[in-house]
Specification:
Order of helices and strands: EHHHHHEHEHEHEEEH
Number of helices: 9
Organism: Allohahella marinimesophila
InterPro entries: HAD-like_hydrolase_sf, HAD-like_sf, HAD-SF_hydro_IA, HAD_sf
CATH topology of the largest domain: Rossmann fold
CATH class of the largest domain: Alpha Beta
Pfam families: Hydrolase (PF00702)
Strand content: 5-15%
CATH superfamily of the largest domain: HAD superfamily/HAD-like
Structural class: alpha/beta
Protein name: GMP/IMP nucleotidase
């Protein structure tokens, strides 16, 4: 059984050539999404379709849970059609809840100083993705070709085929790649693909439970072979990844800095 251990969660950045970053629950607070799907959508569905709130919640929740782990789970077009509501418009109604997780901007600014290529790799549907990019200015750190939605490939990040598509598109070296995600099933798929530097998130939702695990063991499920496992460091603040020599101050980005970063990444 393979283990990765170490008291210091910071990687050797000289080994990292590619950085893959999940968005919801990693860069951004998952509270927005959890509140939308569990609270705001059932309430607005009941109002729009003139149903009793408790029954509407039960109905919407059952439909959503039935699609867990599939691309439909993340597809706004699917839910707009299935529920006969404008999901994108409803998501904009609570856009004020969209915010960065702790350390996100510090890490993104640090990454702009590195030769490594950084990408957002998300299960978010493009329509919802645009709402979030606008809300917090996340787009200033990534050019459009550095933002990849699993919907582009027709497979969720939980699927092996997604990682095959991504490798073909980006031509990254798994042994020199970092990936951060709050979803254990996604981390398992990335581990099975051979990505070496994996990180999880201790508190994806600012109003949710905080994991007390410094490391979480995840399975490397590979078809036709024995199940292996790895220990994945759990982060509470993305700034934990920044070398101490770079944490004394956080520079303020100017328009020239942003332009330079967009050119580099």
């Amino acid at each position: 059984m393979k283990e990765t251990t170490g008291a210091d969660k910071r990687p050797d950045w000289s080994e990292i050539e590619t950085v893959l970053l999940d968005m919801d629950g990693t860069l951004l607070d998952l509270n927005y999404d959890n509140h939308f799907w569990m609270e705001h959508l059932p309430l607005r569905y009941a109002q729009i379709h003139q149903q009793e709130p408790t029954e509407a919640r039960r109905h919407v929740t059952a439909l959503i849970q039935a699609q867990r782990g599939t691309l439909n789970w993340y597809c706004l077009d699917y839910w707009s059609e299935t529920l006969d509501v404008d999901i994108t418009a409803l998501k904009r109604e609570i856009g004020h809840l969209i915010q960065y997780r702790p350390g996100t901007e510090r890490l993104l600014q640090f990454l702009q100083s590195l030769p490594a290529s950084a990408y957002i790799v998300t299960n978010a549907h493009r329509a919802g993705l645009e709402i979030k990019l606008e809300a917090v200015g996340l787009g200033q750190y990534f050019s459009s070709d550095r933002i990849i939605s699993s919907h582009d490939y027709g497979e969720p990040k939980e699927a092996d085929r997604f990682w095959t598509h991504l490798q073909q598109a980006l031509n990254f070296q798994p042994s020199h790649t970092m990936f951060i995600d709050d979803n254990v099933q996604v981390l398992e798929a990335a581990a099975a693909h051979g990505i070496r530097h994996l990180y999880g998130i201790a508190q994806p939702d600012s109003r949710g439970q905080v994991s007390d695990e410094a490391y979480r063991r995840i399975s490397k499920v590979v078809e036709g072979s024995n199940t292996d496992s790895v220990l994945v460091p759990m982060l509470t603040d993305l700034g934990e990844l920044i070398p101490e020599s770079s944490t004394t101050s956080t520079p303020t980005l100017t328009s020239d800095d942003v332009a330079a970063g967009e050119h580099r990444h």
